[in-house]
Automatic annotation (TrEMBL):
Protein name according to UniProt: 5-methylthioadenosine/S-adenosylhomocysteine deaminase
InterPro entries associated with the record: Amidohydro-rel, Metal-dep_hydrolase_composite, Metal_Hydrolase, MQNX/HUTI_composite_N, MTA/SAH_deaminase
Family, as annotated: Belongs to the metallo-dependent hydrolases superfamily. ATZ/TRZ family.
One Pfam family hit: HUTI_composite_bact
Keyword Zinc: yes
Species assigned in the record: Eoetvoesiella caeni
């Protein structure tokens, strides 16, 4: 095939994250269709004919960032519910909000969160959506992500029957409206009705700790039937494994291993409070773990055993985790990956910038099951361009360290997904950003007012 492409990024510093972890200082990336056609020095690709050339001098060209766990609808409560530990935060704030949010309010929040993510160089989101989780709203969330130009997953959250664990821990029964049969039938409807190359739908029993065990079993079977992955929350709070042990006679990963539910298609949010046996099980079964350090600090939940899980064989990505993380900026979250590990271990080499950048790119792609996460010929053309012409980037000796420790989503100048530019020069290209913000301000304010959620301060944009 002649050296012709649709887009040619020229003269940027290319952070490939390929198997050799190459950095190409005066680099170029050619994109043809939705794939990367060639990567090399600017000189070596100078002869390529391109429909569009993008001059990336003074910028880094990086793989698009991958958010492996989020709850975009929770943006509706951004900045609220402060000062609570996890079970109180759920019982008194987030689950009541989730039980009462309307489809229109949820979609407004989803679009606002997705807009922020795209503007910060995120190209893939696994959105754990559980409110409302009816078929129509689930499909509308998937359509919202698709229309924004993103790649990703809607992991449809299922509560199922109101278990003793949920009741004994004060969770809102309004979310536990349906029995297991109804939840699985609705999940099947979503999987059968939705077809898209970029956005998938996965089953998501919402939390191993308080879900009915049969709902978990049937969710995993449904995922296998439709050849997709599945996601759930597990062992986020220190008390979670003890609750499960008392209720079912085994810790969560031990029970799932006995039931034959674990393989590379099982993905988990948090997985903080695992003992040695559970770490070994998660690694041996090649499970995916979404690490959410911003959320874990905000709720004082704890620090995940990152090094142990990776050494055991688990695939670890990072996540923004909705309102508990507040920000969709994965640059901030990469930095916190390093800092949390070092502080919890009191060890300055417990993690580093390259580790964090790997989780946000190639390891996130492995967890999501997509052929992306690196800038290599043949990979999906999911790319972000980041300005290095900022005060925070001067001087620059180790580019990846600068990106992780000093970088910000505000430095992103362009985001490409599937070979198409979806964000450039502070502007969404496939949606009206001003309309998205206006809808979020109006509808989310409406929700918070209706539920009488306490607001300590008042934003002039929401008055």
């Amino acid at each position: 095939m002649p050296d012709i492409c649709d887009t040619l990024f020229m003269h940027g510093t290319v952070v490939t994250m390929d198997d050799e972890r190459r950095l190409i200082k005066d680099g170029a990336v050619a994109v043809r269709g939705n794939r990367i056609a060639a990567v090399g020095s600017a000189e070596s690709l100078e002869h390529w004919q391109a429909a569009r050339r993008i001059d990336c001098r003074g910028q880094a060209v990086i793989p698009g960032l991958i958010d492996t766990h989020n709850h975009l609808f929770q943006v509706a409560g951004r900045g609220l519910g402060d000062g609570m530990a996890l079970w109180q935060w759920l019982g008194e704030f987030m689950l009541p909000l989730a039980a009462n949010i309307s489809p229109a309010e949820a979609i407004a929040a989803v679009r606002a969160g997705a807009m922020e993510a795209v503007s910060c160089g995120t190209t893939t989101i696994i959105d754990n959506h559980y409110a409302p989780a009816d078929t129509a709203t689930t499909l509308a969330v998937a359509a919202a992500l698709r229309d924004m130009g993103l790649r990703g997953v809607v992991a449809r959250g299922m509560f199922g029957p109101f278990t003793d664990v949920a009741r004994d821990n004060g969770l809102d029964p309004a979310l536990f409206q349906h029995d297991t049969g109804h939840e699985i039938a609705s999940m099947r409807e979503c999987l059968e009705q939705w077809q898209d190359d970029r956005i998938a739908i996965w089953p998501s029993p919402i939390n191993i700790i308080y879900n009915d065990q049969d709902l978990v079993r049937q969710s995993v079977a449904l995922a296998a039937e439709f050849k997709v992955k599945w996601q759930t929350h597990v062992s986020e709070a220190p008390i979670d494994p003890d609750i499960y042990q008392r209720s079912y006679g085994a810790r969560p990963f031990v029970w799932m291993e006995r039931e034959g539910l674990l393989d590379q298609n099982a993905t988990f949010a948090h997985a903080i409070w695992l003992d040695d046996e559970e770490v070994e099980i998660a690694g041996r079964r090649r499970c995916g773990i979404a690490h959410n350090p911003m959320s874990n600090q905000y709720l004082a939940s704890g620090a995940m055993r990152l090094k142990d899980l990776r050494h055991a064989g688990a695939t670890v990505g990072i996540g923004a985790d909705g309102a508990a993380g507040h920000s969709m900026d994965l640059f901030q979250i990469m930095k916190q990956v390093v800092y949390v590990q070092r502080l919890s271990a009191l060890d300055p080499v417990a993690s580093n910038a390259w580790d964090a950048f790997e989780l946000a790119t190639r390891e996130g792609a492995r967890l999501a099951g997509i052929d992306a996460g690196q800038i290599s010929a043949g990979k999906l053309a999911d790319i972000a361009v980041v300005s290095l012409d900022t005060p925070a980037q001067a001087p620059c000796f180790d580019l990846v360290a600068n990106l992780v420790y000093s970088g910000s989503g505000r430095d992103v100048t362009l985001t490409m997904v599937d070979g198409k530019v979806v964000y450039e020069n502070k502007r969404l290209l496939l949606a009206d950003g001003e309309e998205i913000k206006a809808q979020a301000h109006h509808l989310c304010r409406q929700l918070v007012t209706r539920l009488n959620i306490p607001i300590r301060g008042n934003s002039p944009t929401m008055a």
